[in-house]
Design brief:
CATH class: Alpha Beta
CATH superfamily: CGI121/TPRKB
Radius of gyration: 16 Å
Largest sheet: 5 strands, antiparallel
Shape: globular
Distance between the termini: 30 Å
CATH topology: PF0523-like
Order of helices and strands: EEHEHHHEHEHHH
Number of helices: 8
Number of strands: 5
Helix content: 40-55%
Strand content: 15-25%
């Protein structure tokens, strides 16, 4: 999905992928950067990504930090990862959301002012062997995955219950709490 960000002149591409074999992160990143040299590209382990809003708010916070010259990292792609993980330390962000060889679910995020470059990138992603679209992953939740996210973001059951609003699922409550942590990170920089 490619959308125009209202806050800037940039377009955002977000893709959720599933890998059938070990992920060679460096090879994949090199290939994507060749296709889209003027785009900012980040690939994250999707295991702890709660959905589209989680990614969108990470991107918006990173762009806001760049605009206000308050970035934690010098690289916008890393800044997106830092905000998505709600961690101040890059090494902790990489530990939480960095792609490992055994990563099965990936979230690809790309920013560019050039829509056609993002479209080429989207096409190139679809051509990568052993990677396929994963339309169900951002919305597929089970107790094990929820517990993994709670542990990664240090969210207690008591915090979930205190935040729960009528009609919201546990996944939606978790996403709101993670977005809150991202917002707190942005004001603490």
């Amino acid at each position: 999905m490619i959308i125009q960000l209202q806050e800037s002149n940039e377009k955002l591409l977000v893709r959720s992928l599933v890998s059938t074999e070990e992920v060679e992160f460096d090879v994949l990143m090199r290939r994507l950067r060749e296709v889209a040299p003027s785009s900012v590209v980040q690939i994250m382990d999707g295991r702890n990504i709660l959905g589209y809003d989680h990614v969108l708010f990470a991107v918006l916070n990173a762009l806001n930090a760049r605009r206000n010259k308050r970035m934690i990292c010098e690289d916008l792609a890393l800044e997106i990862l830092v905000y998505a993980s709600a961690q101040r330390q890059i090494k902790n962000s990489l530990k939480m959301l960095g792609v490992r060889r055994d990563s099965k679910h990936l979230a690809v995020v790309a920013l560019s002012e050039n829509r056609s470059e993002l479209e080429r990138l989207d096409g190139a992603i679809g051509e990568v062997e052993k990677l396929g679209p994963d339309t169900s992953f951002p919305n597929s939740w089970n107790k094990e995955r929820l517990n993994s996210v709670k542990k990664a973001f240090k969210i207690s059951d008591a915090e979930i219950e205190a935040t729960r609003m009528r009609g919201l699922s546990e996944r939606e409550v978790l996403e709101k709490l993670v977005i809150e942590r991202m917002a707190l990170l942005s004001i603490s920089v």
